[in-house]
Amino acid sequence: MSIRLIARELYKLQQEVEKLKVRIESAPPHEREAMEDRLRRLRAERNRMRKTLNGAKEPSPFRQPR
């Protein structure tokens, strides 16, 4: 995956997390548990993508130019 695609996916995940946070605040109590579980999964995926993007931007320590 290219850095651009990873960044685009990360942005999309960040937007979904923010929208879901707002929806949870106004959701009825019987729906909150499922929504909070979805939020937890989205945050985990967002964090994985962020780590992937940060790893892709760093140069490899094994192939440094001389």
SSE arrangement, N to C: HH
- For this entry, what is the oligomeric state of its chains? single chain
- Can you count the beta strands? 0
State the end-to-end distance: 27 Å
Level of helix content? over 70%
Structural class call reads: mainly alpha
* Rg from Cα: 17 Å
The global form is elongated
Give the mean pLDDT: 90
What percent strand?
Answer: under 5%
Residue stretches low in confidence (pLDDT < 50, at least 5 long) are none
Sketch the major β-sheet: none
Count of alpha and pi helical runs = 2
Describe the structure.
It is a single chain. This protein has 66 residues and is mostly helical. It is built from two helices and no strands. The two termini are 27 Å apart.
SSE diagram, text form:
Blueprint: H1 3-26, H2 29-57
Helix pairs in contact: 1-2
